[in-house]
UniProtKB/TrEMBL annotation, chain A:
GO terms for cellular component: apical plasma membrane; endoplasmic reticulum; Golgi apparatus; transport vesicle membrane. InterPro entries: CDC50/LEM3_fam. GO terms for biological process: phospholipid translocation. This is Cell cycle control protein. Belongs to the CDC50/LEM3 family. Keywords: Cell membrane, Cytoplasmic vesicle, Disulfide bond, Glycoprotein, Golgi apparatus, Lipid transport, Membrane, Transmembrane, Transmembrane helix, Transport. Residues 1-31 are annotated as: Disordered.
From TrEMBL, chain B:
GO terms for biological process: phospholipid translocation. It comes from Chanos chanos. This is Phospholipid-transporting ATPase. Residues 14-31 have a biased composition (Basic residues). Residues 478-492, 1494-1504 have a biased composition (Polar residues). Gene3D superfamilies: Calcium-transporting ATPase, cytoplasmic domain N, Calcium-transporting ATPase, cytoplasmic transduction domain A, HAD superfamily/HAD-like. Residues 1-13, 1505-1523 have a biased composition (Basic and acidic residues). The lineage of its organism: Eukaryota, Metazoa, Chordata, Craniata, Vertebrata. Its EC number is 7.6.2.1. ATP binds at D420, K421, T422, E692, F734, K758, R801, T881, G882, D883, R1009, K1015, N1038, D1039. PANTHER family: PHOSPHOLIPID-TRANSPORTING ATPASE VA, PROBABLE PHOSPHOLIPID-TRANSPORTING ATPASE. GO terms for cellular component: endoplasmic reticulum membrane; phospholipid-translocating ATPase complex; plasma membrane. Residues 1-31, 458-505, 1351-1441, 1484-1529 are annotated as: Disordered.
Length: 369, 1529
């Protein structure tokens, strides 16, 4: 059939070329005989039947289960320690501090929690603070920032975006950094001490740089005024966010980590996706290959308790965790892979049965023997 | 030309309305038209015509200025658009906004502009066509220049005088005032209006009739009063008031309608009465209904559901948010930001704001891009349908045109097809096929071969453009063409002006030939045997004439032959023209020839012009026109001369001798003509009906040619004898009641007054004088009668139109007495029609049968196959035709619409009451038949009764396949034939339900003599009452209304006008293309779109649900983890292409399989691809998938330091991958384009994401996605998620599809599996489809959820399939052995159905006795046949085998009376049938006798074939067969 239509077309071409003057002007409207126009494009036509999809299920099963096991093992190798220092319980050392609702009481409340690690943390340890029930993803909260201001735009510094309302101005001065996110900056200070078996308290060096995304630190967040290192002068005429104790140019003494490019600030500004989240606070770097970063033993967590969470039934935690190639400790993905793999395998078996029982029925009615 | 007519004209109608309103104040119910030349200015204040619409037409919707506001206004009529704009605007309200307002506008603007561009383009096209039409030229009389000047059509005004030249298209409705024609006639072709290519005569207004000199517009000062513009093509009333106060009536015969073409008339003058939008042609086209496809209607329901879901989701979240805020009480958490004003938001207010915000966020759930996507996909589908080579017709160089872009998928869901007959099913070319003369059949095998060659030529489709062919047939074609060069150039010139090349070409094709004179119709190959006999006979006659021997010595069979051909030649109203003067009548010369003798003079004025004008009752305008014109003349001229004829006759009688003048040499004038003719080549015949032309051409093939026709004499050229002048005494025109026409002539050779009658076999056979019983001549006569009847049956069974030719010789006394009464009748004042009718009846008695002809109204190629295949596809086919009943039935048989074994209910009623009774009876009859079946199947009867009682409640659907909750209606093996008048009664409100009840239970319905309005009414009725999808197909303007009313209108763009095409949604070159259009493209379009729509709902729901789940984790704050850009462009860009590609290219089953297995079409009819529950299944699946896509990342990232958009971007990616893979599962054919589109989509997403995330570190608040994607791509977790999530999400669907494919495959699935098989195996399988079809049907049935109906459903589908399947072998058998008389008992069915007593017009159901017989004998078999599918094939066979096995019983039954036939059936319910059959006029006992003996003769041969068939059927298992046989025997 196809061949004949090709012939017809060729002949048609002859005609339109050779026929008299009358018809030469009138181009034949005959459609082109191309595979595309005639909808005859070569195609792969998979038919989904038990027989044809069987292999897929088994293959998925066979691939997923090992991956899952691998992931699970990796996740289990990650060491993680978590301590809640909210101070809800009366017994908690931080109970007293937690009673305060104030954001910027002049006297900081301090408390210390003792804990012990059962296992040594070998590689670099990441220290997080975790908040629960904190809806950093609230729509109005997420919006409440001015990225140009944070990028060092001098106009935005004095004229923050409307999005920052109602944290845009205070005392008729523009707030820098404006907005609800900045306003609610996490301002607890966490310090870690190793208690030697002999009782001495050794402060553990916490590195505060390198906790933010490189792009954030170097591209997105910039201090206004370019290279001018005198932040105090630059931020003249602006007001500190209402909840802050110190203005933004006093966040740190290190000029590389002060002002908008303070990494704690940058980390906070990256709003968490879920109401229970952790944010990287410090990094404990591995000293050498011989000694673990955090040896087994007792530790004390010194907290300068500033951040009130009781208003929203929040919880504050400190987390110590090592990290693998796939991030923090999370057995879920491994389990998921194993489960899905097993389900696939099981369904494969079901299909096999179906195929054996019913699969031939069709073929027998279709194909004469 | 008539393009404007099909275009939508809402604007116009309103305009007209306005004008009407304006005018109604000024005038009353009439329109007064003065001549414009009486006034200075056409528009001047004094011109009374100034208020009438001018001839400019405007069908566009917009102007340049009004486009934007008007188009936007129209677009906002679409609810969806308003909704989206509302949402976009909502974004500008700060408290509730979710996105950047400008960004949110983007999709709406995009969609609106796409639609606007489309509208603009369409309107531009309309504008161009309007312009083209408005700028056509016509000659208008100019007051200042005192001559006719060329003007544009649009400048024409009411009251202008126009001069019309031959082949010109009428620019407006014009009152004919003068014509160059000697008879003051103007011939027009109304093809563009009613699709009839034959010529219509229009007559000059009576007052100007006897005007000798040229009509001078300056002298015209009459005033015309006529009715206001209306759309009735067949009515025009008014009068013309002359200066002297004389009034003359105006009739529709005086009006030339816009769009018609002047033919055959050199020049005509007229005054414009209606112009522009007020012309009848334009008024006749009420703008097309806005068609919304069924799928779209269904979709809109689901869109509505989406809105509900959206609102529920928003409400849920709003309440959640309120509660969430409430739980914090006064302790405001730090993350709960105050309102910009710094005030506290109450939870309730916050919830309300949130509700609005969420509507914005979730807006995607209501698929904005769906509407645009559907439009894009439909345009692509249209493109592909356009490009299909199989829908291209080389002969006319036309391809399929999709004129409606928005209902392609309706093609896949059609349940009822309403078809026109002439030009749609047939080619409207009548071809002489075979004849029988004096009982001898001349099969014209060579002729049949010739026709077969045309057929081949058609199928090869390459012959027509070639020049210099070698075949002799081709030569004739070229000579024909060359002869028409003059004409063609002339006509093309007129058409060039239209600008459209295609139109010009079509028009040239049109005018190239006179109506009904294509070579195929003209060049008849004579049967050698018959030709020899004719020659023989003619030479003998010449010899006799030479020796002055009386012609009675001629052997009777030979004289019959020559009479037969003379009858063919003169018993008609064919006008002769010569080709050099196109359509110029030869008779002009003749009229000028001098009167030579007194006899001649007397002869000229014999009352031969008086015709029996009894047909004014018939709607056919042809005959009336003619007779009316003659009447008009005769009333002035003939009355005194009629008397003189009588005296002359008396004179002659007294002399008693033979007159020499008949033998006198041909008058010189004829020689002149002859030489002229010889020079110019062959003569051409202008016939009013195609079969007349066919017969004349047939006679010419036997050298017996008509060379001239005068009002009172016909000249015939015979071999050896030369030209003979037949004095034409009377023409008793054809009318539908008598079903015959007669001419009374004076035979020049025998000088006898001879009546030649030609008519339907059923009537003629009754009028044949009973053969004398005693001597041998009588015996021979009887034999001839038997044989002829027998051949007639064969012809009818072959689908030929049969005509009987008879003659009668009148003695002078007889003639004189008849003439006297005839003249009385003609001069009678009261009841003239009836008297003339009776007079005709008196004449046409005791005829002598000459022979019969079989004319083929050639079906278009592949019509029977197409119909069979469409039937198999579950389509009900109704034929609505304006043709007369016999013709329609014949064609219906020929195209296998009616089955010879089918019983036919004919409804002909004369009054409303009669119709009611008739319908009632038919219903009872069907019911009775059904009840006798029901005795074996109670269930079925229950179904029927349910339905019958439910009739008054609008019954949901008729087709048993329609939908699950409909009551299946059993379609019987019945045919219904109804004529126009009865149809009019049946369509009355009170009867329409009954009519439908009868009609829907018949397998095929045939409406004859139906008007365009009725056609559309029928379609409307079925569409509205049965709630089914209807398709109307037609080719002429008479089908326009029907095409517009139907869900899908299809026009045939054949040789007829373009009106149907203009009104249609799809224009096909040929009827057979319908098969591919519906079965393949319809199926594809439907399944593609249905799948796409479902997919769209799924996709949007799945995407939106992700955000919904997130609300549980963000305090129901309306926050979205998906970046607003992704949210907005996800549908528009990232996921759009693959689905568009799939929706455009996906083929679930290959075209070949779809055509081989028409049953797959039911997939669309039943809406299998898109059932309401599927929407919900998809929704559930969407929610499941979104849960997976949400919670796998959720748990994977839970309690980590992931930020909002670093977490949201993977989710977006996962959703995209899942959605694309989901599409992959649903895609059935993967071409490189599918692969490419998916790869492209994924790449596009990543590219856009990477660019977007790298572009600006400070923009795009609040997401601020700087470097997010880049970071993610370095994260292994991201890839791990990308692997597991889509697989998990799609696992259930994949598994379900696999199980479905194995455990309960749909028919489509089986079709796909068939596709995969190698070709040979497939062929083999399809050839044994019987098993397969059953299983297919069962599959359809098994899919129905309602258990109770599953059985009848199975039955239905199988029954239908099988019922259609068997005819194929039969049809081949027919063509293989055309001469063998096959199953005469079957053929009798149709022929007897036709017979009807001519003037008994009482109500009666015309159920053929024979089919009754078949049915009754079959009665006991029918029961099981309906209930048990296995027996079905045999019920078809058994009636045939029956009479053969038991000829004795049959003969006995036949020889007894009608009564006996019926009462011999023992079944009680059949008493109903008795009542019906009793009222039928008895079958003439002769015929059944003949038939039975005939059947006995050929029984041996048939017996063999029957046995063959029995053997064949035995191959498949049938446990019942034996029992059945015994029951029968």
């Amino acid at each position: 059939m196809m061949a004949s239509s090709y012939n017809a077309k060729e002949e048609d071409g002859h005609h339109s070329g050779a026929s008299g003057p009358g018809s030469s002007t009138v181009k034949s409207r005959k459609p082109d005989n191309t595979a595309f126009k005639q909808q005859r494009l070569p195609a792969w036509q998979p038919i989904l039947t038990a027989g044809t999809v069987l292999p897929a299920f088994f293959v998925i099963g066979l691939i997923f289960i090992p991956i899952g096991i691998g992931l699970y093992v990796t996740s289990n190798n990650i060491k993680e320690f978590e301590i809640d220092y909210t101070g809800i319980d009366m017994s908690s050392p931080c109970f007293n501090c937690s009673q305060s609702f104030s954001w910027n009481s002049s006297v900081p409340c301090k408390c210390s929690l003792a804990f012990s690690l059962d296992q040594p943390f070998e590689s670099n340890v990441f220290m997080y603070y975790g908040l629960s029930n904190f809806y950093q993803n609230h729509r109005r909260y997420v919006k409440s920032r001015d990225d140009s201001q944070l990028n060092g735009d001098s106009f935005s510094l004095t004229n923050p975006s409307k999005e920052c309302e109602p944290y845009r101005t205070s005392e008729n001065k523009p707030i820098a950094p404006c907005g609800a996110i900045a306003n609610s900056l996490f301002n607890d200070t966490l310090e870690l001490f190793y208690i030697d078996p002999n009782g001495t308290r050794t402060p553990i060096p916490l590195i505060k740089k390198g906790i933010a995304w490189w792009t954030d630190k170097h591209v997105k967040f910039r201090n206004p005024g370019g290279n001018n290192s005198n932040l105090t002068a630059i931020f003249q005429g602006t007001s500190k966010p209402v909840n802050w104790r110190k203005p933004v140019y006093e966040l740190d003494t290190d000029p590389e980590n002060n002002g908008f490019i303070n990494e704690d600030f940058i980390v906070w500004m990256r709003t968490a996706a879920l109401p229970t989240f952790r944010k990287l606070y410090r990094i404990i770097q591995k000293k050498n290959n011989m000694t673990p970063t955090l040896p087994r033993g007792n530790y004390t967590l010194e907290v300068t308790y500033n951040y009130p969470v009781r208003s929203f039934e929040g919880r504050k935690r400190m987390i110590l965790s090592t990290i693998s190639w796939m991030g923090g400790k999370n057995p879920f993905l491994g389990i998921a892979y194993i489960t899905v793999g097993s389900v696939c395998f099981f369904l494969g078996v079901v299909l096999l049965i179906i195929h054996h029982k019913y699969g031939n029925r069709n073929n027998s009615s279709d194909i004469p023997n | 030309m008539a393009r404007e007519i099909g275009e939508p004209r809402e604007a116009k109608s309103s305009k007209v309305k306005q004008q009407k309103k304006r005018r109604s104040k000024k005038e009353s119910k009439t329109r007064t038209v003065h001549a414009n030349i009486l006034y200075d200015h056409a528009k001047g204040d004094d011109n009374p015509n100034r208020h009438y619409a001018n001839n400019k037409i405007k069908t566009t919707k917009y102007t340049l200025l009004s486009f934007l506001p008007k188009n936007l206004f129209e677009q906002f009529h679409r609810f969806a658009n308003v909704y989206f704009v509302f949402i976009a605007l909502l974004n500008f309200v700060p408290v509730v906004n979710a996105f950047q307002p400008e960004l949110a506008l983007a999709p709406v603007v995009f969609i609106l502009s796409v639609t606007a561009i489309k509208d603009l383009w369409e309107d531009y096209r309309r504008h161009r066509s309007d312009k083209e039409i408005n700028h056509m030229d016509c000659l208008v009389y100019s007051r200042t220049e005192r001559r006719y000047v060329e003007k544009y059509w649009k400048e024409l005004r009411v009251g202008d005088f126009v001069r019309l030249r031959c082949n010109e298209i009428l620019p407006a409705d014009v009152l004919l005032l003068s014509s160059s024609d000697p008879d003051r006639l103007c011939h027009i072709e109304t093809a563009t209006l009613d699709g009839e290519t034959n010529l219509k005569q229009r007559q000059v207004v009576r007052s100007f009739l006897d005007l000798d000199c040229e009509f001078d517009p300056c002298k015209y000062n009459s005033v015309i009063e006529c009715e206001k513009p209306n759309n009735d093509l067949n009515r025009f009333r008014g009068y013309i008031i002359h200066r002297n106060g004389r009034r003359d009536g105006l009739y529709k015969d005086n009006l030339l309608l816009r769009g018609c073409t002047v033919r055959n008339t050199e020049e005509a003058l007229g005054i414009v009465i209606y112009a522009g939008h007020e012309t009848k042609a334009m008024l006749n086209n009420n703008g097309p209904r806005y068609k919304r496809s069924k799928l779209e209607r269904q979709m809109n329901v689901d869109v509505f559901w989406c809105v509900i879901i959206l609102l529920v989701m928003c409400l849920f979240c709003a309440i959640g948010h309120g509660l969430w805020m409430y739980q914090y009480g006064d302790k405001r958490p730090v993350f709960d930001v105050l309102s910009p004003e710094g005030t506290d938001l109450s939870p309730a207010l916050s919830a309300i704001y949130l509700f609005l915000t969420l509507i914005i966020v979730f807006q995607v759930l209501v698929p904005i891009s769906l509407f645009v996507s559907i439009e894009i996909v439909k345009i692509c589908q249209v493109y592909f349908i356009h490009q299909d080579m199989e829908l291209y017709d080389e002969e006319t160089d036309s391809q399929l045109q999709c004129r409606a872009l928005n209902i392609t998928e309706d093609l896949g869901q059609v349940q009822y097809i309403f078809s026109d007959k002439t030009g749609t099913l047939t080619e409207n070319k009548m071809v002489f096929r075979r004849c029988t003369v004096a009982g001898v059949e001349y099969s014209h095998d060579a002729n049949a071969r010739r026709l077969a060659m045309y057929q081949e030529m058609d199928s090869e489709e390459e012959e027509c453009t070639s020049h210099g062919g070698t075949l002799p047939r081709r030569d004739s074609v070229t000579s024909h063409q060359s002869a028409k060069v003059v004409l063609r150039s002339q006509s093309t010139k007129s058409h060039r002006r239209t600008g459209s090349r295609a139109e010009a070409k079509r028009a040239s094709i049109l005018s190239k030939h006179t109506a009904f004179s294509s070579p195929m119709e003209k060049d008849i190959t004579p049967d050698p045997e018959l030709l020899e006999k004719v020659n023989d006979c003619a030479s003998q006659m010449e010899f006799m004439r030479f020796h002055s021997q009386p012609f009675s010595h001629l052997p009777s069979d030979l004289s019959d032959i020559i009479d037969f051909f003379i009858a063919l030649t003169i018993c008609n109203t064919v006008v002769v023209s010569s080709p050099n003067q196109p359509r110029q009548k030869v008779r002009r010369f003749e009229l000028k020839s001098p009167v030579k003798t007194i006899e001649d003079f007397i002869k000229r004025f014999t009352p031969s012009r008086l015709t029996s004008g009894s047909n004014s009752s018939s709607s056919s305008s042809l005959v009336t026109t003619r007779s009316a014109s003659h009447k008009a003349c005769s009333s002035i001229l003939s009355s005194p001369s009629a008397e003189s004829t009588l005296t002359k006759l008396d004179e002659e009688r007294s002399r008693g001798g033979t007159l020499d003048h008949a033998f006198s040499p041909v008058p010189p004038s004829y020689d002149e003509t002859k030489s002229l003719i010889q020079e110019e080549g062959e003569l051409r015949y202008e016939a009013e009906s195609p079969d007349e032309a066919a017969l004349v051409y047939a006679a010419r093939a036997y050298k017996c040619s008509l060379v001239g026709r005068l009002p009172d004499q016909v000249t015939v050229e015979l071999p050896h004898l030369g030209k003979l002048n037949f004095e034409l005494l009377h023409t008793l025109g054809f009318d539908s009641t008598r079903k015959r026409m007669s001419v009374v002539v004076k035979h020049p050779l025998t000088d006898q007054i001879t009546v030649y009658t030609k008519g339907a076999d059923s009537v003629i056979m009754d009028l044949i004088s009973p053969p004398a019983t005693d001597h041998s001549k009588g015996k021979r006569q009887r034999k001839i009668l038997f044989k002829t009847q027998n051949y007639l049956n064969v012809y009818a069974a072959d689908g030929l139109r049969t005509l009987c030719i008879a003659k009668k010789v009148l003695s002078k006394e007889e003639y004189a007495s008849w003439l006297r009464r005839h003249l009385e009748a003609e001069t009678a004042i009261q009841g003239r029609e009836e008297l003339l009718f009776e007079s005709a009846l008196r004449l046409e008695t005791n005829l002598h049968l000459l022979g019969a002809t079989g004319i083929e109204d050639r079906l278009q190629d592949g019509v029977p196959e197409t119909i069979a295949s469409l039937r198999k596809a579950g389509l009900q086919i109704w034929v609505l035709t304006g043709d007369k009943q016999e013709t329609a039935i014949n064609i219906a048989y020929a195209c296998k619409l009616l089955d010879p074994e089918e019983e036919i209910i004919t409804l002909n009623a004369e009054s409303q009451e009669a119709c009611a009774v008739l319908l009632e009876e038919s219903l009872h009859y069907i019911q009775a038949k059904f009840l006798c079946n029901a005795s074996t199947d109670q269930h079925a009867s229950r179904v029927y009764h349910q339905d019958y009682s439910a009739l008054h409640v609008p019954a949901p659907a008729c087709s048993p396949y329609a939908s699950l909750h409909t009551v299946p209606f059993l379609v019987h093996r019945l045919g219904l034939v109804i004529d126009g008048r009865t149809l009019a009664y049946a369509l009355e409100k009170s009867l329409e339900d009954k009519f439908l009840a009868v009609a829907r239970s018949c397998r095929s319905v045939l409406c004859c003599r139906s008007t365009p309005l009725q056609k559309s009414k029928v379609v409307k009725l079925v569409r509205n009452k049965l709630k089914v999808m209807t398709l109307a197909i037609g080719d002429g303007a008479n089908d326009v209304s029907m095409i517009q009313v139907a869900d899908v209108g299809v026009g045939i763009s054949g040789q007829e006008g373009m009106q149907a095409v203009m009104a249609s949604d799809f224009a096909l070159p040929r009827f057979r293309n319908l098969q591919k259009l519906l079965l393949v493209h319809g199926h594809w379009c439907y399944s593609r779109l249905a799948n796409m729509i479902l997919y769209f709902f799924y996709k949007n729901a799945m995407f939106v649900a992700l955000i919904f789940w997130y609300q549980f984790y963000c305090g129901f704050s309306g926050s979205a983890m998906i970046d607003q850009w992704y949210l907005i462009f996800f549908n528009l860009m990232f996921s759009a292409f693959p689905q568009l590609i799939t929706a455009t290219l996906d083929k679930d089953v290959s075209a070949a399989t779809l055509q081989d297995l028409p049953q797959l079409y039911m997939n669309g009819q039943n809406s299998e691809e898109y059932k309401p529950y599927m929407f919900w299944m998809n929704m559930i699946d969407a929610f499941y998938q979104s849960l997976v896509c949400f919670f796998i990342p959720y748990f994977a990232y839970s309690d980590s330091d992931v930020d909002l958009f670093t977490w949201g971007t993977p989710i977006t990616t996962l959703a995209l991958l899942t959605i694309l893979l989901h599409l992959g599962i649903e895609t059935k054919t993967w071409t490189w384009m599918n692969w490419a589109s998916i790869v492209f989509s994924v790449c596009l997403f990543f590219t856009v994401a990477l660019c977007y995330n790298a572009s600006c570190p400070t923009c795009y608040s609040p997401s601020n996605p700087y470097w997010t994607m880049q970071r993610l791509l370095t994260d292994p977790l991201f890839y791990l998620l990308c692997v597991i999530t889509p697989i998990t999400a799609l696992l259930p669907r994949y598994f379900y599809r696999a199980c479905q494919g194995t455990l309960f495959p749909s028919p489509v699935h089986i079709g796909r599996q068939l596709d995969k098989l190698p070709t040979e195996i497939r062929r083999h399988l399809l050839s044994q489809t019987r098993v397969k079809l059953g299983s297919l049907g069962a599959l359809f049935a098994s899919r129905s959820s309602s258990f109770a109906f599953s059985r009848p459903l199975t039955k239905q589908s199988q029954r239908q399939e099988k019922a259609v399947a068997p005819p194929q072998p039969k049809s081949t058998e027919v063509t293989d052995t055309p001469r063998s008389s096959k199953h005469p008992e079957n053929h009798l069915g149709p022929s007897q159905k036709k017979e009807k007593r001519s003037h008994s017009q009482s109500q009666r159901s015309r159920v053929s006795a024979l089919t009754d017989l078949l049915d009754n004998t079959q009665g006991p078999l029918r029961g099981p046949s309906l209930t048990d599918t296995d027996t079905l094939p045999y019920t078809r066979e058994l009636p045939r085998t029956g009479p053969v096995l038991e000829p004795a019983t049959l003969t006995a039954a036949v020889e007894s009376s009608d009564h006996a036939w019926v009462t011999s059936t023992p079944l009680l319910p059949q008493t109903e049938c008795i009542q019906l059959t009793l009222s039928r006029p008895g079958v003439s006992p002769v015929i059944p006798n003949e038939r039975s003996s005939e059947s006995g003769l050929s029984s041996d041969q048939r017996f063999l074939s029957q046995e063959d068939r029995m053997e064949h059927t035995q191959t498949s298992d049938c446990p019942k067969e034996n029992t059945l046989k015994t029951t029968f025997l």
